[in-house]
Amino acid sequence: MAYIKPTDRNKSWAIRKIPKVRELKSLEIRNLFRIYCEGENTEPEYFKSFPVNTETKVEAIGLGRSKTALVEKTIQLLSQDQLLKRQKNYDADRQLWVVFDYDIRHEANEAFDFNKAIEVAHQNGLNVAYSNDSFELWFLLHSRYHDTAITRREYNVILSSELNCNYEEVGKTKEFSRNLYQRFLPTQNEAIQNARRLFNRYQHLNYHEQNPSTTVFQLVEELNKCLKK
Fold it and tell me: Which residues does residue 98 pair with via DSSP β-bridges, in sequence order?
């Protein structure tokens, strides 16, 4: 600390302010989000961009795996940290999420894999933000209600037009993904309403049959509860 003349030591600018106990407590992490994502850039950077308060910490991690492989790896990592139910560090208030897409490729067992991933996640106390077919559906719902199944390529074409870019080329980059929260924030409430409308429409169907649908809005709503005031 710089030297202060004796005659100045009682002046307001020279008095070092010590945080009160209540202020120190307010800096403690009370809300922890651990979010494991299929994508390595788009989803993690989007969720990390939420301006949460000082009591909240968001850890969004891209594992580069999908469906059951992602869920199994997530369970392994959480088990190592003793964070799952009946483990010593388990906290019922902690938000544990997996985020992945269906990614229809018309391959054998892909529907079974998608359904199993969601079921295994729920069985292990994980929340699931799944999208059928693509995470980009969540972005599309910011501008319109969309209830017709389309391909990933069609999502890219629409978003390229709306975002004035080649989304297929730049949409998955880390730099571009960091701006997605702010880009879509003005119509986020509309997206939540549209996504919930789709979700309610498909609840009687198997997960793989819910196309298009996304539960990303559920994670977004939880994050919104922890935003800076």
Answer: 36, 128
- CB-CB contact of 219 with 47 (8 Å): yes
DSSP 51: -
Whether 226 and 53 have beta carbons less than 8 Å apart is answered as yes
127 HSE (CA, 13 A, CB side): 18
What percent of the chain stands above pLDDT 70? 88
CB contact set of 170 (below 8 Å; sequence gap of 6+): 176
C-alpha span between 55 and 226 (Å, rounded) = 8
Asked if 184 and 144 count as a contact pair (C-beta separation under 8 A), the reply is: no
Reported pTM = 0.86
Distance CA 166, CA 215 (A): 26
At 159, which amino acid appears?
L
> Distance between CA atoms of 20 and 124, rounded to whole angstroms?
40
CA distance 105 to 88: 40
